[in-house]
Design goal:
The protein is of the alpha+beta class and 404 residues long. It has 12 helices and 15 strands. The protein has an 11-stranded antiparallel β-sheet, sandwiched between helices. A two-stranded antiparallel sheet has the order 5-7. The protein has a two-stranded parallel sheet with strand order 6-15. Strand 3 and strand 4 form a beta hairpin. The longest helix is centred in the first third of the chain and has 22 residues.
């Protein structure tokens, strides 16, 4: 994987992958590196990060610019971020869950208009919810990862191997569990846990195996990994240290004085079990592989045309109703594990920022220019301080093509 021209710039490494006929200009590479260095210098004290990785591609076959700044952790002897460094994908890996479901639909194993009573009768309160509404976040089902139970698991049993059923149960209504039901669009990780449970029943295989067989392996994602719980040491060694620095109240603990997750604040979560995320955000990858995967998704190389159309059909983040496109009056849309939004001066773009306890992965797909920018860093920052999007803005300003 480590091919191309390597340039040492400002103590970090920038790698250019290009054909002899179409190489990125060295001055552009230097500007990309300088932008990453500047973002890290400005944001590290605020967002508590130690490094950032970026991958910019200008077409599925190349060329590309790969750049890094900073180190993988806070130890003075921590190694620099480089091509070998991995980050948790967080919710950008929800696209793997959608890929599994839609491929099972294409194979005749299920329909995304099936209701939960067909596949998961053990959850009768949710019997009328469709698979489609799970994937586009219009099911109304509460979010298990915002509960006190989840926070206690992080603090008291960080290595526990939670099951999909346990995660879903944490959101299920009972006399002792009365989480608010919503209407319209509401982001809930429980939706994707239930989708994985359905996929396992429909395919007769563990969801971990399905992700590898239907997404990771067919697309050559050799720096992408998915496990239901803890990762092997070979993966952990490549994973940047990840820092949880967000002392905000939970969705279900508004205006709190002491957040449920307070004991986790300031912790390095690198070795914690990822079983609390699983199909809702548990994959680990590099910026290069995220780019490769998302280009396959948007390029229609993962599912047949019918399922591709389903994948990109939008609902409004304001109303939950289907919309043909985002607009100034309705600027945010959610498809199946994909976001589309008017991103300020960048205009309407496909994007997703996935966040786990100690990591962030953000991609933006500028379809009209065939440019994709992916950045990764190693914290969940204090509430309201996330400016990872500014790194994308700065990089796009450098690499965007002039308008005719």
């Amino acid at each position: 994987m480590k091919n191309g021209l390597i340039s040492l710039l400002a103590g970090a490494v920038a790698v250019v992958h290009a054909t002899a006929a179409l190489a990125a200009e060295p001055t552009q590479v230097e500007r990309v590196q300088a932008a990453l260095d500047a973002w890290l210098a400005a944001r590290a004290p605020i967002e508590k990060v130690t490094g950032i990785a970026a991958y910019i591609s200008f077409g599925a076959a190349g060329p590309a610019i790969e750049a890094f700044a900073g180190k993988v952790g806070r130890d003075p002897d921590a190694r620099p971020v480089d091509q070998d460094t991995l980050y948790q994908m967080g919710s950008t890996s929800k696209s793997f869950t959608v890929a599994v479901i839609l491929q099972l639909e294409a194979a005749g194993k299920l329909s995304i208009d099936d209701t939960l009573d067909k596949w998961l009768p053990e959850f009768p309160a949710w019997k009328d919810v469709t698979i489609r509404s799970l994937l586009d976040m219009t099911s109304g089902i509460p979010n298990y990862s915002e509960t006190e139970w989840m926070a206690k698991s992080w603090t008291e049993e960080p290595m526990r191997a939670l099951t999909l059923k346990e995660l879903a149960d944490a959101a299920y209504p009972s006399p002792n569990n009365k989480l608010p039901v919503t209407k319209g669009y509401h982001y809930s990780n429980t939706n994707y846990i239930l989708a994985a449970m359905i996929a396992e029943k429909a395919a007769g295989k563990a969801f971990t195996n399905l992700v590898h067989e239907l997404a990771i392996e067919p697309h050559g994602l050799d720096s992408t990994f998915y496990e239901a719980s803890t990762y092997p040491e070979s993966v952990i060694k490549r994973l940047a240290h990840g820092y949880f620095e967000n002392a905000a109240c939970s969705e279900y603990q508004p205006d709190c004085k002491v957040p449920w997750n307070a004991p986790v604040v300031g912790k390095d979560v690198r070795e914690m079990s990822t079983s609390w995320m699983q199909s809702a955000g548990g994959a680990v990858s590099s910026a290069r592989d995220v780019d490769r995967w998302m280009r396959a998704v948007f390029g229609g190389k993962v599912v047949p045309p019918k399922q591709q159309q389903e994948w990109t059909a939008l609902v409004s983040m304001k109303t939950g109703e289907p919309i043909a496109a985002v607009s100034a009056d309705d600027p945010g849309g959610f498809a199946l594990g994909l976001g589309r939004k008017i991103l300020g001066t960048l205009g309407a773009q496909w994007f997703y920022e996935g966040e786990s306890l100690g990591y962030r992965t953000l991609y933006v797909w500028f379809a009209d220019q065939d440019v994709m920018i992916t950045v990764q860093t190693n914290s969940q920052p204090p509430d309201g301080t996330d400016k990872l999007g500014e790194a994308v803005n700065a990089l796009y300003d450098i690499v965007k093509k002039p308008k005719d």
